[in-house]
Amino acid sequence: MIRRVLVCLLTLGLVACATPPQPSTPAAPAASSKPKSPAGQTPAEGSVERVADLPAGVPPQEDFATARAAFIRDTAARFSIDPMYIDAVLAQAQFRDDVIALMSRPAERVKPWSEYRPNFITTTRIDGGRAFLARHREALTREEQTQGVPAEIIVAIIGVETSYGGYIGKHRVLDALYTLAFRYPRSGKPERAAYEYRREQFFRDELAQLFALGREEKLDITTLIGSYAGAMGMGQFMPSSYREFAVDGDGDGRRDLYNSVDDVFASVANYFRKKGGERGGWVPGAPVVARAELQPGFAEFNPDTWTPDYTLAQLAERGYRPLEPVAADATATLVSLEGSAGKQYWLGFQNYYAITRYNNSKMYAMAVYQLSQAIAGREIPPA
């Protein structure tokens, strides 16, 4: 959950709406359970967020025994957890070659919007979303009224991430995080050394956060199943996001993102409202995007980030004009997409930025938004 730097692996086939999970003990599927991906589908693996940039230079790589001992010591002190317990749990963890292979895959060709969107928005996915919304309308409406995040946005996120809870991943979270925390794949390229070091440190922190989460929620962390990057539950929250943003939506004293749809809906909505730092999160009742056009004679503008920092006047100076009514005091970012009939230009407002906090991708955010509109029965433009 959830600022990602992993590319969403959504070479999706037809997606069926899953039967709502039933409460069980423990709170998550046991490690022996093997949830299977629907044919032809890969989930939106790993809601992986960035870690802060480190000073120039990469520390020498520690040997495993030293790194493991330091992890136990630091995690025990940081979260007041018995170091013997941490050691005993780590003794059960396994290094997974398949996790390394998945994390090491070469980046795929960046698809244009006209090819990217069909992976998300299909008749099956829309119908599944409508059925899921109808089945849980009362709980979703309650969250919409309480937190101001539309029900269809919550449903669309769950649909994209886990096929409405039908596929949460197949890796033991402990193994995935253990592997990436201590054996993050190294390319050997000097220009990537700092990035790879930061990634390993990120996953090492998430492994520590998993121990804290297990203590707080009384979870057996050796049984939790998720993505190869360690994301968990119907909304694919990393351990740190689970701890920070998960909400007890059903009032049972627990935050269960595997079995309680009330907790899942409340947590996804809470994430939208609160994830965004100083910039802020979802604004109830505010727009997400608006179509725009680029006037002849102007060069295309491609912002480096998706923060909506530009006034309409500043965008007009760059040649962009909204094609639908927009509040005069609105600020936006500019989103350019390669559509099937040529370039598409959109103004992305604060709520568009809020969607990118789930995945830092302009196409992901637009796909989630348009899927939500289709689920709600509204017309969406061609890809």
From TrEMBL:
What range(s) does the Transglycosylase SLT domain occupy? 64-373
Q: Has keyword Signal?
A: yes
- What domain of life does the native source organism fall in? Bacteria
Annotated active site: 161
Q: Which Gene3D superfamilies match?
A: 1.10.530.10, Bacterial muramidase (1.10.8.350)
GO BP field: peptidoglycan catabolic process
**Which residue ranges does the record annotate as region Disordered?**
21-47
Residue span of the signal peptide, if any? 1-18
**One GO molecular-function annotation for this sequence?**
peptidoglycan lytic transglycosylase activity
Q: Which UniProt keywords apply?
A: Signal
**InterPro entries given in the database record:** Lysozyme-like_dom_sf (IPR023346), Lytic_transglycosylase_MltB (IPR011757), MltB-like (IPR043426), SLT_2 (IPR031304)
Q: Cite the PROSITE patterns for this sequence.
A: PROKAR_LIPOPROTEIN
Q: Does Ribosomal protein appear among the keywords? A: no
Q: Where is the composition biased (Low complexity)?
A: 27-39
Pfam name, any one: SLT_2
Name assigned to this protein: Membrane-bound lytic murein transglycosylase B
